[in-house]
TrEMBL record:
Family assignment from sequence similarity: Belongs to the pyridoxal phosphate-binding protein YggS/PROSC family.
Function, in words: Pyridoxal 5'-phosphate (PLP)-binding protein, which is involved in PLP homeostasis.
Gene3D superfamilies in the cross-refs: Alanine racemase
N6-(pyridoxal phosphate)lysine modified-residue sites: 40
PANTHER family in UniProt: PROLINE SYNTHETASE CO-TRANSCRIBED BACTERIAL HOMOLOG PROTEIN (PTHR10146), PYRIDOXAL PHOSPHATE HOMEOSTASIS PROTEIN (PTHR10146:SF14)
Keywords: Pyridoxal phosphate
UniProt name for this protein: Pyridoxal phosphate homeostasis protein
Alphabetized HAMAP family for the sequence: PLP_homeostasis
InterPro entries for the chain: Ala_racemase_N, PLP-binding_barrel, PyrdxlP_homeostasis
GO molecular function, one term: pyridoxal phosphate binding
Amino acid sequence: MTTDTHIAADRLAAVREGVDRAARLTQRQGDDIRLIAISKTHAAPAIRPLIAAGQHVFGENRVQEAQDKWPALREEQPGIELHLVGQLQSNKAADAVTLFDAIHSLDRPSLLTALAKAMDRADRRIPCFIQVNIGAEEQKGGCPIAETPALIAAARDADIPLLGLMCVPPADVEPAPFFALLAKMAREEGLPRLSMGMSSDYETAVMLGATDIRVGSALFGDRPPPARPVPGSGRGMARNSLA
Ligand SMILES: *Cc1c(COP(=O)(O)O)cnc(C)c1O
């Protein structure tokens, strides 16, 4: 093993241990929780060691960046599963449908229409999570809580396979109440999966029912510091400012 692979294997083992610990506390199995390695901003040489360490599920937050990086990596390593976790513009829906195996950011009726059309054209159904704006933050993506049941019903009508709900809670406050609320919403809608929890809070998320955790920096190391938020850019949150 190369040094890079050792580092990647150590980080992966540490996250897996955290997942197992949190799962055990709530009488679940760590193996039942899907760890999505968020590789945004990291180029192929940083990603390969994690693949070599055994990680096969990855997530990106931009369609273009994923298109640039993943076709080649997938040729090197068959069996990669790629998730889109960032906001999706309707005009990129067709690209997203060909590139990704799951989409975590379905959050509005116009995108639902675009995705349904793209899936029909490609004859490929991509399972989706509905992203909920769980902290009711103005600048943030995600469907308003009150509008979520209608969006879920519309997705079901349009034959979009729904996995569950996803959220990114507000930065710098205790995330547990937001995770608990998302779990309650999913339960009420009969949706089985919960995409919640990032590097700083995945153990809390697992204890509150996360089935899919999205972990970047704990696996790859820190990303370059974010540029200062641009007012009106729609990126209101430091944690998400590279999204
Ligand atoms: C970047 C990102 C993550 C991972 O964040 P880390 O704090 O690096 O673990 C998870 N979810 C979304 C939507 C992201 O944009």
